[in-house]
Amino acid sequence: MIRLEPRTDPSQTMIILTPILAVLATMVVGGILFVTLGKNPFEAIRMIFWDPLFGEHAFYYRGQILVKAAPLIMIALGLSFGFRAGIWNIGAEGQFIMGAVMGGATGLALYPLDSFIVFPLMVVMGALGGFLWAMIPAFLKIRFNANEILVSLMLVYVAFNFLIGMVTGPLRNPDGFNFPESRSFQDFPAAHNPELWAGTGIHLGVLTTLGFVILAYIMITRHIFGFNVRLAGQAPRAAKFAGVSPNKMIAICLGLSGALAGMAGLFEVTGPAGKLTTTFPLGYGFTAIIVAFLGRLHPIGILLAGLLMAVTYVGGDIIQSQLSLPKASIQVFQGMLLFFLLAVDVLVNFRLRISKRISK
Amino acid sequence: MDISIVSLLATLIVAATPILLAATGELIVEKSGVLNLGVEGMMIIGAICGFIAAVNTDSPLIGFIVAALAGAALSLLFAVLTQYLLANQVASGLALTLFGLGLSALLGHGYSGIKPPSSPKMEWFGMAELPVVGPIFFNHDMMVYFSIFLVLVVWLFLKFTRGGLILRAVGENHEAAHALGYKVIRIRILAIMFGGSCAGMGGAYLSLVRVPQWTEGMTAGAGWIALAIVVFASWKPWRLILGAYLFGGVTILQLNLQANGFDMPVSYLSMAPYLVTIVVLVIMSADRRRASLNAPASLGKIFHASS
Q1: In this structure, what CATH number is given to the domain that contains residue B203?
Q2: Per-residue pLDDT, A357
Q3: A56, CA 20 to 30 Å: which among A27, A360, B158, B293?
Q4: Is B306 part of a structural domain of the chain?
């Protein structure tokens, strides 16, 4: 009979070990999945986890990893504060879209102004777009006690429809052929977010993300805000007595995650995506939730988890083209990863005890 | 504008049925004190599994049965995570949704563009011929009546049976229920599986009747709306019907406005169901005291028997 025995303190070893265990378990079960799809599992796993980093075309893939990791990490960093405090913003995808639309629209409105101020202004407006969009669930939660999970999620669909409305309406490229897409930012140097060194995949968003990782690390370990967030999550009543206003916490956590998601959206649309289209949202806002958990809601962990998740994205593209597997198989992989992580998580707070029942 | 009220009401019921089914299941789950946010994932798994089964057997009924089983199977993953491994329910529910969306796309590869076998209408002794009431109430397929029947059964179960009382006890105070000797974990797992099978059927109704075909991500938030409708209904079975039909009405109305060339871009009209859901949530949650009175007291809390 296996019994769970609570630990007095969370096991530090397990906090580090469990994500690795989860990845290994995902590889094993994922391998079985590939067998059922009639593919060689070892080859598939190698393509997902190894080839993007060290394979034949790794020089190209490595850049792609950074391109995909940056938005994931930036969004996940913002989410991690709220998740620690028990505030569930799961609408980051919507905030990502609104940041891209609002920041992108700002740039397009200034076309073809050639000034150094254009891009910084767009970044600020992008962050503001995401921030304001996240303030809707925050306000409704504070004022009307409406569940922020459901409201923020509903707003993803609203944001997506808004994006479609924009690219088929006001933001449609006037020189295009009536395609539902905006002017390309590549043709507008002042608003473009180019690759800084050819082939590296590094653009301003990647550098900004790195900066935020360091900033978030300082915030969570050294700053009173990080302490309050942790307190609110672990002991809400104690936090209240310590003068941490729950409402302020909701507003800050949602606002922060919204602003970061919005900024990620802006860097994405001006750089890798290049323009606003109806297929612009790629689900980064949802995958970032997995990244946040896999990284243990810790900035350094999120950095590593974001890179890993980006590897699986690139690896997913590889198996898609080489093994002709559907794109969705990688999504299954990512979902499975979160499952296993949540499953092995029990080892952090509990000890497995194998006890023989003597008599009943 | 040419909108017939009769056909509007008839299609409204069809649009509401998937959500009503899923919400009824989730009501039981939440009454047992578990918050399963994976409704969307279970629905879409039901949608594709039911679709595959119906297409291959040429029987919608088998499709719905398979969908229910598939939804229950997926919910079992959630049950193991949250009940045995004590994982956070919010995160586990999200994982279920993300996993379900991916898996359904994988399973559905090669099934898009196929027409499923059509579900026959129920025979109501010719009452479908009646003017006005006929097309609205007596001209639907079996699942529409089943969904209402299910609400009735759930209401009777919760209100008049011992099992319902135990389920509510577990949801209100799992420590006390445990002390009385009820198997909290077992009861919750059964509730979760019931929720999963209802969500699965709801999803299958989308792919087999409402749309009817398979497209990736076709649930488009229906599972989340079902969750919101449980809140709207204040955890009372009959109000689920009201909530689901209200939502169905908004969906159908905006579709009709689109079709009739109402002077507003389609994308803005498509926002309507989601915006209405938010408004409804706000209204129902605004009175904090009432909202907290209705919600099961142990909702979302982890239970671990100390001995």
Answers
A1: 1.10.3470
A2: 60
A3: A27
A4: no
Q: What is the DSSP letter of A353?
A: E
User: Which residues 34-53 of B have a C-beta within 8 angstroms of A?
Assistant: 37
Chain A positions touching B268 (Cβ under 8 A) are: 161-162, 165
Put simply, whether B127 touches A (Cβ < 8 Å) is no
Other CB atoms closer than 10 Å to residue A353's CB: what's the count?
10
Q: Which residue of B has its CA nearest to A285?
A: B98
Helix (H) or strand (E) holding A61: helix A58-84
- Where are the domains positioned within chain A? 69-315
Domain containing B269 equals 5-294
SS3 assignment for chain B: CCCCHHHHHHHHHHHHHHHHHHHHHHHHHHHCCCCCCCHHHHHHHHHHHHHHHHHHHCCHHHHHHHHHHHHHHHHHHHHHHHHHCCCCHHHHHHHHHHHHHHHHHHHCCCCCCCCCCCCCECCCCCHHHCCCHHHHHCCCEHHHHHHHHHHHHHHHHHHHCHHHHHHHHHHHCHHHHHHCCCCHHHHHHHHHHHHHHHHHHHHHHHHHHHCCCCCCCCCCCHHHHHHHHHHHCCCCHHHHHHHHHHHHHHHHHHHHHHHCCCCCCHHHHHCHHHHHHHHHHHHHHHCHHHHHHHCCCCCCCCCCCCC
Q: Which SS3 state, helix, strand or coil, does residue A165 take? A: helix
ipTM, 2 dp:
0.86
Domain count of the fold of chain B: 1
What are the pLDDT tens digits along chain A (360 aa)? 677 778 877 878 888 888 888 889 988 988 888 888 888 888 888 888 888 888 778 778 888 899 999 999 999 999 999 898 888 898 999 999 999 999 999 988 888 888 888 889 999 999 999 999 999 999 999 988 888 888 999 999 999 999 999 988 888 888 877 788 888 888 887 778 877 887 777 888 888 999 999 999 998 888 888 888 888 888 888 888 888 888 888 999 999 999 999 999 999 999 888 888 888 888 899 889 989 988 888 999 999 999 999 998 888 888 888 887 777 788 888 888 888 988 888 888 788 777 666 544
Strands A2-6 and A350-354: antiparallel
The answer to whether position B97 is within a domain reads yes
User: Half-sphere exposure of residue B204, counting CA atoms within 13 Å on the CB side?
Assistant: 33
Residue B144 lies in a domain: yes
Q: Residue A135 forms beta bridges with which residues?
A: none
B299 part of a folded domain: no
Residue B45 structure tokens: 């798994």
Contacts of B227 in chain A (CB under 8 A): 150
Q: Please tell me the distance from the alpha carbon of residue B155 to that of residue B195, in angstroms, as a whole number.
A: 15
B224: which 2 tokens?
A: 């989340």
Cα(A63)–Cα(A179) distance, integer angstroms: 30
Residue of chain A with shortest Cα separation from B232 = A146
Question: Angle at Cα B108 formed by Cα B102 and Cα B109, nearest 5°?
Answer: 95
Residues of A in contact with B304 (CB under 8 A): 4, 6
Nearest to A161 among B80, B228, B267 (CB): B267
Determine whether B284 is exposed, middle or buried from the number of CB atoms within 10 Å of its CB (0-12, 13-18, 19+).
Answer: buried
Asked if A76 has any chain B CB less than 8 Å from its own CB, the reply is no
